[in-house]
């Protein structure tokens, strides 16, 4: 379970724990604590998840040293723009109870993405975020910030799972060309297709669950998946994917399962 390297030399764990839709307070604190105790080192939250305080509590309860963890949060729509974004990171850090995050992401390609990105570059330079990136960006959304900015986003976090793979070619190509790491959110497609028969056959062959096959596939695709669970057994199960690999035939089969299935909003419909 080796770390991966971002373009700025910062290392990022190969898998993360997602917290979207996990309620603040005890539920998320306990899930984050379990995840860190199980071995996750990357924890992903966002201002709009409204659970940063509970995530911070879970981090502290885990007892694991801050320097061993990789914490991500995200700038939300209402805080876009230069001044607002500079304030938003302070609010997020205060809720998390941290003095820096490892990764700060622009949550969507906002209208004011140029000014927001300028603020994020400042946040990076001030070391309140050790890396900065974006989320839900299609290749065309990068144009204005690459033209006006001085730092290329280090990460693009997008919905990425087998049932959406038919839509992901352009993003993959663009991110590969620009050395932008893809983080895969909803890597289990929100559990909507966990009984897929083709994946089930591959799972039987490897003695793994369908969820583990889907997560392993995201690893083989070069992404960092961020599965979410509030169940301790499944939290552990999702981490147990580093003792096997998929063969070429498995990957070809899974690559063919794309059917434009989204669990979240479609960035194509934003403009
Ligand atoms: P639960 O929290 O009860 O485990 P995604 O990460 O793609 O958004 O998927 C999250 C959904 O998948 C949640 O409903 C979660 O439910 C479920 N889930 C997470 N891990 C597993 C797993 N290993 N097996 C089955 N369902 C899972």
Chain-averaged pLDDT: 97
Write the H/E string, N to C: EEEHEHEHEHEHEHEHHEHH
The gyration radius over C-alpha positions equals 18 Å
How many strand units? 10
Q: Based on helices, strands and strand pairing, what is the structural class? A: alpha/beta
Strand content: 5-15%
The geometry reads as globular
Q: List each distinct ligand once.
A: adenosine-2'-5'-diphosphate
Kindly state the percentage of residues in helix.
25-40%
The N- to C-terminal Cα distance equals: 39 Å
Structure keywords:
single chain, 271 residues, alpha/beta, eight-stranded parallel sheet, two-stranded antiparallel sheet, 10 strands, 13% strand, binds adenosine-2'-5'-diphosphate
Please, could you describe this protein's structure?
The chain has 271 residues and is α/β, with parallel strands linked by helices. Helix content is 39%, strand content 13%. It is built from ten helices and ten strands. It has helices spanning 26-38, 52-62, 82-96, 113-125, 139-148, 169-177, 197-206, 210-220, 232-237, 248-255, and strands spanning 4-5, 11-12, 16-18, 42-44, 70-75, 103-106, 132-135, 155-159, 181-185, 224-225. It has an eight-stranded parallel beta sheet with strand order 3-4-5-6-7-8-9-10, covered by helices on one side. Strands 1-2 form a two-stranded antiparallel ribbon. α6 (169-177) links the parallel β8 (155-159) and β9. The chain binds adenosine-2'-5'-diphosphate (A2P).
């Amino acid at each position: 379970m080796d770390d991966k390297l971002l373009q700025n030399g910062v290392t990022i764990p190969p898998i993360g724990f997602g917290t979207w839709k996990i309620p603040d307070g005890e539920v998320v604190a306990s899930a984050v604590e379990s995840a860190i105790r199980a071995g996750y080192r990357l924890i992903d939250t966002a201002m709009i998840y409204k659970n940063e305080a509970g995530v911070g509590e879970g981090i502290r309860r885990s007892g694991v040293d801050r320097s061993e963890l990789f914490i991500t949060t995200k700038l939300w729509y209402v805080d876009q723009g230069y001044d607002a974004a500079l304030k938003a990171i302070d609010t997020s850090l205060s809720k998390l109870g941290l003095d820096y995050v490892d990764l700060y992401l622009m949550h969507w390609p906002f209208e004011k993405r140029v000014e927001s990105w300028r603020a994020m570059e400042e946040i990076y330079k001030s070391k309140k975020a050790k890396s900065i990136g974006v989320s839900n960006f299609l290749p065309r959304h990068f144009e204005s910030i690459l033209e006006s900015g001085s730092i290329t986003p280090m990460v693009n976090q997008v919905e990425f799972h087998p049932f959406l793979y038919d839509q992901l070619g352009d993003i993959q190509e663009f991110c590969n060309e620009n050395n932008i790491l893809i983080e895969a959110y909803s890597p289990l497609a929100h559990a909507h297709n966990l009984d897929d028969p083709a994946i089930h056959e591959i799972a039987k062959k490897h003695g793994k669950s369908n969820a583990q096959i889907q997560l392993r596939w995201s690893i083989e695709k070069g992404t960092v998946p961020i599965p979410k669970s509030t169940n301790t057994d499944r939290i552990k199960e999702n981490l147990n994917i580093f003792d096997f690999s998929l063969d070429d035939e498995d990957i070809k089969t899974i690559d063919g399962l794309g059917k434009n299935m989204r669990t979240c909003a479609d960035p194509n419909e934003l403009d």
